[in-house]
Amino acid sequence: MPLHDVGYRAWQGARRGPWSAAAAIATTGIRLVWTSRWLRRAVLLAWSPALAFAASFFAFEQAIDEGRIASLQERAALGRNLDGIGLLGTILADTLGKPGQPDRAEPPRDREAETAATRRLVWSRLLLAFMRAPQAVLLAIVIGLVAPQLVSRDLRAKAWLVYFTRPVGKIHYIAGKIAVLGTVVAAVTVLPALALWLAGVLVSPSVWVIVETWDLPVRIVAASVVLAIPTVLLALAYSSLTAETRIASFAWFATWAACWIAHSSLTTADLVAADDSRATAVAAGSEDDEEWQPPRRRMNWLARAAGIDAGVDRWAWISPYHAVGVVQAWMFGVETRPRAVVPSAVALAIASLGSALVLAWRVAAPLRS
Amino acid sequence: MHDAEPLPVDLDGVVKRYGRRTVLDSVTCEVRPGITGLVGPNGAGKSTLVRAILGLVRLAAGGVRVFGHDPVRVPAVVRQLVGVVPEDECAVPGLAAVEMVRYAGRLSGLPGTEALRRAHEVLDWCDAGQERYRPVETLSIGVRQKVAFAAALVHDPRLLILDEPTNGLDPLERRAMLGRLRTLAHDHGKTVLISTHVLPDVQAVCDRVIVLAAGRVRLAGTIEDLTRPARPRLRLELRGDTAACCARLAAAGIAAERIDAVTLHIPRQDQGGLDRVWQATREAGVVVAALAPVQERFEDVFIAAIAGCREGQHAAS
User: Fold this and answer.
1) Do A167 and B120 count as a contact with CB atoms less than 8 A apart?
2) Which pLDDT tens digit goes with each residue over B275-299?
3) In A53, A55, A165, B159, which residue has its Cα 20 to 30 A from A247's Cα atom?
4) CB-based contact (8 Å) between B179 and chain A?
């Protein structure tokens, strides 16, 4: 008999409510997924773009500190190329060279106010580009590593009996699983973005920058929620549909790839059609051939991610990546046109609702017999 | 006047259908404190009955009460009171055995530290040893069974439901497991419901038995009651000429039934009748090795109970 065997003893302590079960599912789930070496690598990798973006914050604040914003504005107004400083140059050219941006509708009254307004817009665009371009892609990869096993593994191991023979409702089970992915989302998007904002504050000349940009952390969190809700629900819905993790993984990556390809194809088709109609108009002599160029072709991926694109992406709703990006741009105040935002927001809401229904239906399947 | 303590499990006219197939057909029975065996052939509806007790299936008719609570209306309350050892291996891959038991405790509402303490305590009691630190998916079937048992007990339930609890256990472990069940029922006041095919296990530990076949309760009661023959008889074991003894008994007015070369069954006798039996054996020159009331074997009772329904099934098919 083991030394510590005290026999069976009754337990009289107070029990916690069912939400403590959800917390247990979340913490245990996080611990289990964190044992994956690939996930740890991916999360580490997810922080590396923040370094590059931190350099942009530093360069911008340095330009303010050295009083070079005015000269940059003049160059931008003259249409000079600011690409010497990469993405920041493109953002500055767009921000400084185009007065009348949505956030700058009121002309600044003095230089300080102008600097503050410029900073807000530049920081917003940098953060938006950070969240849309590297982080959204990395998040899709990380969720693809984590989510497919969360429910399918329970189905395969018949672990649902572990949960549903105990005082755990399906809502607590789902909440626990969502919390696992929510933590991953936070590790990949929210925390690096908040760190980036903090880095911006630290390299800025004045601590009052916190007051000027206090809403950006809130917008970061809101934009991450917009990113997290549909992606997490969709990934868990796929995971709940099969006991084979690899099938759920394939479905997840296939959805992103297929929707991206569909979006690119439709957008390209639109551009070709616009070119044709333009060529027809030029041939008819009603338009000048010299002035016009398709705006979207001149923008690189990062710049478009920063919201520097005059056109409305009418096919954004078809691709989760692009739809999330449009709504995130709205969250950061970069995109305000309802005709650009509403279709994507509706598409994401429908996808989220559908995924949630599938998830609830599948999780309850063993209980429904 | 105070209310009587509600029964651990009370099933009243429970009907469950999967499509057109009736799996539980007007099942009315009760599980009382102590150890109850739920026995029946494959497909009898045992697992469905267990699920009905947990509120995991929708019933077509009838009701279930667990300590007076309706498991459909208040499943969380019922599942706090119940611990289940499923037949299927169900565990969370990647967790060590002790973590698995702790996780089960936390899912049942135990605080984290307390759940870990209880997990170790119950695993000690189950004699899990150092195996507890290995991932559950790498454990042998016997240790997995212990872990599942510990996970069902960690939150100290009032009712313990076990589906084939001795599956995969060697004889020593099987004996230890049955001993633990006795301890829980008799020393700690737990109600234990064992769903099993293994009739010797049932005979070894169960106070009461429910025989389920084709979705119906065929028999229910204590093993003693169920194995008592309809016609009280005595078993007479002899050494010598059994045929001559039969003839002497017949001459004395006692109808003897020859079972085998050394065994006779005779109707139960009063003292006068017993005197005539002794007289007849003396006259036949045989030695009486044993004289005892006939008890039917539980296995025979079980087979007789399910035979009718099997014949019915064959006729129907």
Assistant:
1) no
2) 999 999 999 999 999 998 887 788 8
3) A165
4) no
Residue B302 forms part of a structural domain: no
**Which DSSP state fits B4?**
P
Tokens representing residue A245 in the block: 């993790």
- Cα separation values, A31 from A37, A166, A235, B120, Å: 12, 21, 19, 20
Q: From the candidates A28, A166, A168, A172, which should be mutated to test the interface with B, based on the most B CB atoms within 10 A? A: A166
Q: Looking at the whole model, is its pTM more than 0.95?
A: no
Note whether B92 contacts A28, CB cutoff 8 Å: yes
Nearest CA in chain B to A2: B124
Residue B265: domain span: 233-293
For chain A, the domains span: 18-368
Structural domain total, chain B: 2
Residue of B nearest to A7 (CA): B125
Residue type, B220: A
With CA atoms as reference, the chain B residue closest to A36 would be B94
Residue ending a domain, choose from B224, B249, B268 = B224
* pLDDT at residue B270, rounded to an integer: 85
Whether B106 and A24 lie within 8 Å, measured CB to CB: yes
Residue contact A159–B91, C-beta within 8 A: yes
Do the domain assignments include residue B315?
no
How far is it, in rounded angstroms, from Cα A181 to Cα A154? 16
**End-to-end Cα spacing for chain B:** 54
Instruction: Point out the residue among A10, A163, A167 whose CB comes nearest to the CB of B188.
Output: A10
**Per-residue pLDDT averaged across A314-319, rounded?**
86
- Within this chain, do residues B165 and B199 fall inside the same structural domain, yes or no? yes
Structural domain contains residue B137: yes
- Residue pLDDT, tens place only, A72-102: 666 666 655 555 556 666 777 666 665 444 4
Residue pLDDT, tens place only, A191-223: 999 999 999 888 887 888 888 888 899 999 998
Q: Are residues B99 and B164 both part of a single domain?
A: yes
What's the residue count for chain B?
A: 317
